[in-house]
Amino acid sequence: MRRTQGVFGTLLAGSLAVGAIAGAPAQAATTTTTQLSVSASDDAYTSSARKSLTTGSETKLVAGTVAGDRKVSYLKFTTGKAATGAKLALALDGAPAGSTLTVTRVLTSSWAESTLTSTNAPALGTTTVSAKLAAGQREVVLDLGAQITAAGTYSFAISSSSTTAATRIHSTEHGTAGLRPALRLTVAGAATPAPATPAAPVSGCTTGAKLVPTCGVLWGAAAGGFTSTPRDTALKQWEAATGRTAAIYHTYHKGNELFPTKAELAMTQDAAKPRTLLLNWKVAYGDTWAGVKAGKQDKRIDRWAAYVKANVKKPFFLALHHEPENDVNTNPESGMTAKDYAGMYRHVIQRLRANGVTNAINVVAYMGNETYLAKSWWPDLYPGDDVVDWIGLDSYLNAEKGYHHGDFNNLLDRGPVAGTNKLGFYGWATTKHAGKPIMVAEWGVYHSLKRTADKGAVFDTVLNQLKARPAVKAMVYFDCPADDTGDRNIAVTSSASALAAFKKIAADPIFNVSLK
């Protein structure tokens, strides 16, 4: 039951706030706090009588006991910020008068709505808040206090004291966004304008050291993926369709290839459409990470360094073997362990620097998948702050209900499903490597080729949530009509509504950054 609507919610008419001042005025955009509303990434309920029942696709949550069948509802939220206050807002579709609804912290967020049952339901903690419900009440808002202490994923269970009737709560499957469960957070910082408010013009934003914008966010794309269309032609067509020049032009190379090519360099020399390059290079193609680390590909590295020094005068981004998680082999003899990757990365960057390549700004680009984040080896991938200029994320959203369906926050900060690392990707990067700019080096919204889902609803969540993540300094869309599996359409032109919503993103002044 994952959401595809914007994060900024409104209070329902006639709502009853518990532990809050009714009718308090909304804070102006000039205040020092922001009121942020985040919908659940997962929600479902369990049944004690039907122990294998899964309810992740239901439009209503249920709490209470009827004929001995106890039902408990679970909600999961992911936020990129700590909050000074939090309230859980639930829209009701019927509740026994005088019953008490109780919210309890869940000890783990490793559960998923698609598989949650009473048999595998997570254990509950002791932190609770309760509210007595009145006859005909349509909403309840429960004050959770200062429970959201850091960026991350939080889960809650909802139970009812009633033993004769159930309380029914609209879930995130509900067709009306305003009736979905919402976690209303009070976070530090200037308030972000509501979606309907035109963005204030951004002026004077340029790129500074290491191509980090002095303000705003760099806009970029890779277009024509897995097609026969030349990438430069595909990008120009994409720019014409979306209405903005891609300041970052993303291309891919491997092994002994000498790049950027003449066509790629030509894309950076158009004065009317300023662009820089994001070059992906699999240096270890035909070898292993350990082999590169041991110097077995030094001739390859030196040859490419000489080519770059002779042909590339402007700064450019360089990503070494993006998405390494997919290729990790934990066998120490494989040469492809996480530590081998970090060693390969360090060796290449240090050798390039020694060869006088000073205009390559490197990006370590992860997948940020919650399964990999939970692996014990995942922290070993990081090569070190001294050889990393930007931290990159390659992450995608599903426009259809199911795996990775959600809003832009879901893309940025998926939490680990288990393990010792409790931070989502954005939280990890900003906590463990504070000050490093973040590049969303690949992102996109997809649906199956067998059907067309509304990508526009997901695109509508991007701007406000991006503006709440100040560490993100660049966004690079990966556009293709069919991915390498032949099953997913990631094109922004898949429907008129998708293109219209995406053009609104592209037109926002936050991307008015001049390449210097």
From TrEMBL:
Residues 195-502 form the GH26 domain. It is found in: Secreted. The keyword RNA-binding does not apply. NCBIfam families: DNRLRE_dom. GO terms for cellular component: extracellular region. One of its GO terms (molecular function) is hydrolase activity, hydrolyzing O-glycosyl compounds. Keywords: Glycosidase, Hydrolase, Secreted, Signal. Belongs to the glycosyl hydrolase 26 family. Residues 1-28 form the signal peptide. Pfam families: CBM96 (PF24517), Glyco_hydro_26 (PF02156). The keyword Acetylation does not apply. The active site is at E323, E442. PROSITE patterns: GH26 (PS51764). This is GH26 domain-containing protein. InterPro entries: CBM96 (IPR055372), GH (IPR017853), GH26_dom (IPR022790).
